[in-house]
Design goal:
This protein has 110 residues and is of the alpha+beta class. It is built from 4 helices and 4 strands, in the order αβαβββαα. The strands form 2 sheets. It has a two-stranded antiparallel ribbon with strand order 1-4. A hairpin with a 6-residue loop joins β2 (60-62) and β3 (69-71).
Protein backbone atom coordinates (compact mmCIF):
# COMPACT_ATOMS: atom_id res chain seq x y z
CA UNK A 1 0.00 0.00 0.00
CA UNK A 2 1.48 3.34 -1.05
CA UNK A 3 0.23 6.85 -0.44
CA UNK A 4 0.91 8.97 -3.52
CA UNK A 5 0.73 12.63 -4.33
CA UNK A 6 -1.71 13.59 -7.08
CA UNK A 7 1.26 14.25 -9.35
CA UNK A 8 2.80 10.81 -8.74
CA UNK A 9 -0.59 9.13 -9.16
CA UNK A 10 -0.97 10.86 -12.53
CA UNK A 11 2.50 9.73 -13.60
CA UNK A 12 1.74 6.13 -12.71
CA UNK A 13 -1.55 6.24 -14.59
CA UNK A 14 0.13 7.65 -17.70
CA UNK A 15 3.06 5.22 -17.47
CA UNK A 16 0.78 2.20 -17.08
CA UNK A 17 -1.53 3.18 -19.92
CA UNK A 18 -4.70 4.18 -18.06
CA UNK A 19 -7.37 3.98 -19.48
CA UNK A 20 -6.29 1.95 -22.54
CA UNK A 21 -4.34 -0.94 -21.01
CA UNK A 22 -5.50 -0.58 -17.41
CA UNK A 23 -8.47 0.94 -15.62
CA UNK A 24 -8.70 2.24 -12.08
CA UNK A 25 -10.63 0.01 -9.71
CA UNK A 26 -11.86 1.22 -6.32
CA UNK A 27 -11.23 -1.15 -3.46
CA UNK A 28 -10.69 -1.24 0.29
CA UNK A 29 -7.46 -2.53 1.75
CA UNK A 30 -6.36 -3.55 5.21
CA UNK A 31 -2.94 -2.02 5.90
CA UNK A 32 -0.58 -3.68 8.34
CA UNK A 33 2.94 -3.53 9.69
CA UNK A 34 4.36 -6.78 10.70
CA UNK A 35 6.81 -9.50 11.19
CA UNK A 36 6.47 -11.16 7.80
CA UNK A 37 4.88 -14.18 9.46
CA UNK A 38 1.33 -13.63 10.69
CA UNK A 39 0.87 -9.85 10.40
CA UNK A 40 -1.33 -10.05 7.30
CA UNK A 41 -3.48 -12.81 8.75
CA UNK A 42 -3.80 -10.93 12.04
CA UNK A 43 -4.84 -7.74 10.25
CA UNK A 44 -7.49 -9.56 8.21
CA UNK A 45 -8.79 -11.34 11.30
CA UNK A 46 -9.23 -7.98 13.05
CA UNK A 47 -10.88 -6.46 9.99
CA UNK A 48 -13.36 -9.26 9.38
CA UNK A 49 -14.50 -9.98 12.91
CA UNK A 50 -16.35 -7.87 15.44
CA UNK A 51 -15.42 -9.03 18.90
CA UNK A 52 -15.85 -6.13 21.29
CA UNK A 53 -18.88 -4.12 22.32
CA UNK A 54 -17.50 -0.92 20.79
CA UNK A 55 -16.88 -2.63 17.45
CA UNK A 56 -20.50 -3.85 17.25
CA UNK A 57 -21.51 -0.41 16.06
CA UNK A 58 -18.73 -0.27 13.45
CA UNK A 59 -20.14 -0.15 9.93
CA UNK A 60 -19.42 -3.31 7.96
CA UNK A 61 -19.04 -3.21 4.19
CA UNK A 62 -18.75 -6.03 1.66
CA UNK A 63 -15.44 -6.58 -0.12
CA UNK A 64 -16.23 -6.96 -3.83
CA UNK A 65 -13.42 -9.38 -4.63
CA UNK A 66 -13.95 -12.24 -2.21
CA UNK A 67 -17.20 -11.62 -0.38
CA UNK A 68 -15.58 -11.07 3.02
CA UNK A 69 -16.68 -8.12 5.09
CA UNK A 70 -14.19 -5.45 6.07
CA UNK A 71 -14.71 -3.03 8.91
CA UNK A 72 -14.23 0.63 8.00
CA UNK A 73 -12.28 0.90 11.22
CA UNK A 74 -9.49 -1.31 9.84
CA UNK A 75 -9.67 -0.73 6.10
CA UNK A 76 -8.91 2.27 3.92
CA UNK A 77 -10.20 3.25 0.48
CA UNK A 78 -7.71 2.75 -2.33
CA UNK A 79 -7.34 2.26 -6.07
CA UNK A 80 -5.73 -0.59 -7.90
CA UNK A 81 -5.08 -0.99 -11.60
CA UNK A 82 -6.61 -3.88 -13.48
CA UNK A 83 -6.68 -4.88 -17.13
CA UNK A 84 -9.01 -2.56 -19.00
CA UNK A 85 -10.66 -5.29 -21.04
CA UNK A 86 -12.61 -8.02 -19.29
CA UNK A 87 -11.19 -10.59 -21.73
CA UNK A 88 -7.66 -9.71 -20.60
CA UNK A 89 -8.63 -10.23 -16.96
CA UNK A 90 -10.23 -13.61 -17.66
CA UNK A 91 -7.54 -14.96 -19.95
CA UNK A 92 -4.30 -16.69 -19.04
CA UNK A 93 -1.47 -14.89 -17.34
CA UNK A 94 0.56 -12.60 -19.57
CA UNK A 95 4.24 -12.45 -18.61
CA UNK A 96 5.68 -9.00 -17.82
CA UNK A 97 7.76 -7.24 -20.44
CA UNK A 98 11.56 -7.39 -20.30
CA UNK A 99 11.69 -3.66 -19.46
CA UNK A 100 9.29 -4.12 -16.54
CA UNK A 101 11.27 -7.09 -15.24
CA UNK A 102 14.39 -4.92 -15.33
CA UNK A 103 12.62 -2.27 -13.22
CA UNK A 104 11.71 -4.92 -10.65
CA UNK A 105 15.24 -6.31 -10.58
CA UNK A 106 16.79 -2.85 -10.15
CA UNK A 107 14.34 -2.08 -7.35
CA UNK A 108 15.10 -5.34 -5.59
CA UNK A 109 18.83 -4.59 -5.68
CA UNK A 110 18.29 -1.19 -4.06
Amino acid sequence: LYKLTEEDFGIICRTEGVPLAYSLHRCRVVPYDGDGEAAGADAMRRATSISTESERTTKIIPNDENGEQLSRKYSVPAFTLRAARKGWREGGDIPPSKSYLNVLIRGAKE
